[in-house]
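Quick illustration, no need to memorize.
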Amino acid sequence: MKNRQIDATLQSAGLGVASLRDLANAVAITVVEVPADAVSSIGAPYAAGTIPAGTYQGQDADVPTATVINYLVTHSDVPDDAVYAMTKAIFESLPDLAAAHAAAKAIKLDANAIVSPAPLHPGAERYFKEQGLM
């Protein structure tokens, strides 16, 4: 788009991703709405979300969009204690993660944390049970 070789692109990236910020700073862009009803008709793993106003140069209003939930995935051979420690480190380091990237502000230790398209690893289950989520 920046080189005027294409007129549109579909990006799947975190809010404020550098490639789109760079594009929006170089040429006028229009962030196209993905209506919530369209997202809900597709279903998982997509969820309705919003690109907040001002995320990109020239984007003056909130824009409804489709989001994809990120999951941390491992295999069953990873030791339970290692997965427990990783899970605990993530949730106990949320302020540091949010300071490193704004998208981490959306990570919460709540019932949504245990929603997964695959079975939870026993190490992660142990941490979530300790936190009263299971």
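The mean pLDDT is 91.
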